[in-house]
Amino acid sequence: MPATIKEAVFSKLMVMRNDIELENLIEDYLNGKLTPAEAQAFEQLRANDQAIDHRVVAHKVFLDSITAYAQQSSLQEQLDHIHETIDVDTLSRKLGPHPSYIVNLWKQNKSALAIAASFILLTCVSIYSVLHNTRQIGSYEMLSRKLGKIENKQDSQNKLIRNIVSNSQSGKPVLSPAKYGGTGFALTTNGYLVTNNHVIDKADSIYVQDSKGASYKVKVVAQFPERDLAILKISDNSFSRLSSLPYKLKRNSAGMGEHVYTLGYPKDDAVLGEGYLSSKTGYGGDTLAYQVDIRVNPGNSGGPLLDNQGNVIGVISARENEMDGATYAIKSKYIMDALGTISQDSLGKIVKTKKRNVLQGLTRTRQIEKIQDYVFMIKVYN
C-alpha cells in the first residue's frame, strides 16, 4: 500500500470533528465503498483502536436491524395489497356453496401466497437473529470471584486457626477473609505480576498467595482499563526473589486450532484447564483478544494462557454465558505494550521479559510443575 494513500486516510481520520463523519466512514467501510487501500488502512486503525472497533461492530448490528425492518415493511405492503384484492365477504357469499370455486381461487393465487409465506419466514429469521444478537450483549461475564462462597464453615474455621498460628509464629499480621479474588502470574523474578484490571479495580489493599500458601502484600504499578490489564509489584519484605522464569511472552499471533491451557484459582487450589484456540478475535470481534474453547470459572481472571511450547499467548479475562466453552483472553502482545508505557520512575528498574523458555518439549505434567510457583492467587480487600 503506497505511503501517500495511507497517510491521506489517517490524515482524514485525525481531522474528524464529530461522530457523524466517523459513522459515514464506518458505513462506507461496511458497504464496501472504500478503495482497497482505504479499507486496509481502516482495518489497521480498527486493530489499533478498540473504541473504533467496537463502533464498527455496533454499527453493523444497527444496519442489520434496519435491513430486517425494511424487509418486514415490504412484506406488510405486499400482504396489504393482497388483502385489498380479495373481497372476503363477497367470496363467502358467492363461493361458499361452491367449493370448486374456492379451489380454483387457491390455484390462481397460490404463487402470491407462497411468496408471502416466504417473506414471513425470512422476516421471522431476521427478527430472531437481531433479538439473539441483542441478548448476547449482556452475556459477557468477567471472571473474578467472590471469596469464601465455596468453603463450608468448618473448613473456614480450620483455615483461620491455621493462619492465626502460622502468622503469629512468623510475625505477620492476621488477615481477615478477602472479598474478591482472581489469578495473576509473574512477569519478572523480582516481583512484577500481571492480572486483569477488573480483578483489582477500586481495591483498598491487595495480597497474593503462592502455590505453597505464603501471602504477600502487593501494590498497583499501573492500570490499563481499556485493555483490562493491571501491573502489580510484590512489596512485601518477606518475599524472596523467584528463580528464572520458565516461560516467555509471545508477541506474534497464535494460530487457530492451536492447543492451549491455563492455570488459575477458581478455588483455593490451582486448577488446570485445557482446550484450543477457536478464534483470533474476542467477544463481538474484539481484535485485542482471542476466543478459546476452555471451561473456566470465576477466579480464572488474570491467569496465563499458554501454548504447547510454553509461550504465554494471553491472559484469561472473561467468558460468554450463552456459548458453552467460549472463553476470552487478552493477547500477550498487549502485556508487552503495557510494560512499555510504564515510566522509569514507577518501575524503579527496567522490567525485563524472558527471551526463551524451558518448557518446550516437556510433558504437560512437567510444564505445570515448572510454572505453578509463578502463578498466584489474587486476594482483594475493600
From TrEMBL:
<dbReference type="GO" id="GO:0006508">
    <property type="term" value="P:proteolysis"/>
</dbReference>
<keyword id="KW-0378">Hydrolase</keyword>
<keyword id="KW-0645">Protease</keyword>
<dbReference type="InterPro" id="IPR051201">
    <property type="entry name" value="Chloro_Bact_Ser_Proteases"/>
</dbReference>
<dbReference type="InterPro" id="IPR009003">
    <property type="entry name" value="Peptidase_S1_PA"/>
</dbReference>
<dbReference type="InterPro" id="IPR043504">
    <property type="entry name" value="Peptidase_S1_PA_chymotrypsin"/>
</dbReference>
<comment type="similarity">
    <text>Belongs to the peptidase S1C family.</text>
</comment>
<dbReference type="InterPro" id="IPR001940">
    <property type="entry name" value="Peptidase_S1C"/>
</dbReference>
<protein>
    <submittedName>
        <fullName>Trypsin-like peptidase</fullName>
    </submittedName>
</protein>
<dbReference type="Pfam" id="PF13365">
    <property type="entry name" value="Trypsin_2"/>
</dbReference>
<dbReference type="GO" id="GO:0004252">
    <property type="term" value="F:serine-type endopeptidase activity"/>
</dbReference>
